[in-house]
Automatic annotation (TrEMBL):
A Gene Ontology term for the protein's cellular component: cytosol
GO molecular function: hydroxymethylbilane synthase activity
CDD domains xrefs: PBP2_HuPBGD_like
Assembly: Monomer.
Keywords from the named record: Acetylation, Cytoplasm, Phosphoprotein, Porphyrin biosynthesis, Transferase
Compartment(s) of residence: Cytoplasm, Cytosol
Organism expressing this protein natively: Sander lucioperca (Pike-perch)
Protein name, entry field: Porphobilinogen deaminase
Domain Porphobilinogen deaminase N-terminal, residue spans: 18-229
GO biological processes: protoporphyrinogen IX biosynthetic process
Top-level enzyme category: transferase
Matches recorded under InterPro entries: HemC, Porphobilin_deaminase_cofac_BS, Porphobilin_deaminase_N, Porphobilinogen_deaminase_C, Porphobilinogen_deaminase_C_sf
EC number: 2.5.1.61
Amino acid sequence: MSEEASSPDGSGKVCRVIRIGTRKSQLARIQTDSVAAKLKELNPDINLEIVAMSTIGDKILDTALSKIGEKSLFTKELENALERNEVDLVVHSLKDLPTTLPSGFTIGAVLKRENPHDAVVLHPKHIGKTLETLPDNSVIGTSSLRRAAQLKKRFSHLEFKDIRGNLNTRLKKLDEKADFAAIILAAAGLRRMGWDNRISQILGPEDCMYAVGQGALAVEVRARDADILEMVSVLHDPDTVLRCIAERAFLRHLEGGCSVPVAVHTEVKDSQLYLTGAVYSLDGSDSLKETMQTCIAADDKSIEEVDEQFQRVGVTASKISGEAQDRAERLGIDLANLLLSKGAKEILTVARQLNDAR
């Protein structure tokens, strides 16, 4: 459990120290600080301590993420610290969290989603252009099979190459060398870093659908820590929770992950949750894409007991209608089944084999 410590104001009042685990990158720290600020505002009597650490994904920088073959690239070390009681909660980008969490952990909060779309960042010499107007054979940097598969099909005059590293590193590689005409990054990360001015183009769903959970922050906790779960649960954004439960259920049922191109788009409108999901071959030439919807205006407003058994694709959200969450999860499963019935498994199997062989 968390430590008890005397407050620094000398009043002798005992206040709790909550330790928050995070990755060491600048973006991870900014994201964690934003969550810490919200928790402090809601719980003025707690002291927060940030514990930063490096993950496998931070250390292996010369290999494409999809080739490393580890599902918890950016989360394992943080979860190890959580298991050893070295931290009380961990802040992640939700898209980094596998759809099945290790036993004993749960996502206690999914915060309001930033823009989930991908953004084009151009080399300074191409400012003013778009992916469409870039010269033939221009090289675009992306470490994502999902982005490359969609964009290869849509912009066949461009070439796509892997680029690794955190946001700062990738921008430096773009600006200081002539290797890339542009790179594709999540708009959310650029905005959180205050680099909106580097966004040349936001890619809409017709060009590039986003990754499951993209743009949302998640707070992972020990499932047994009812008090911590209660404390972070107020950070849940209901629409984001329902969208991400549907997305994660879709991905889990497809058995997708980093090593296959799977993309989604969700929207909540007039009490309806819309989910579009797609799978692609590595070069984008073969794809399946469908949309389904469900009503999330639940009749049952009862509050569930906080308990690990109420997790839905790793998320515990006891203050959001259980019926609405069930419908969101079912939507994801139903859409996955629809794509599987049309041959999604074959497309993903080939994509996985080709990626392994690269």
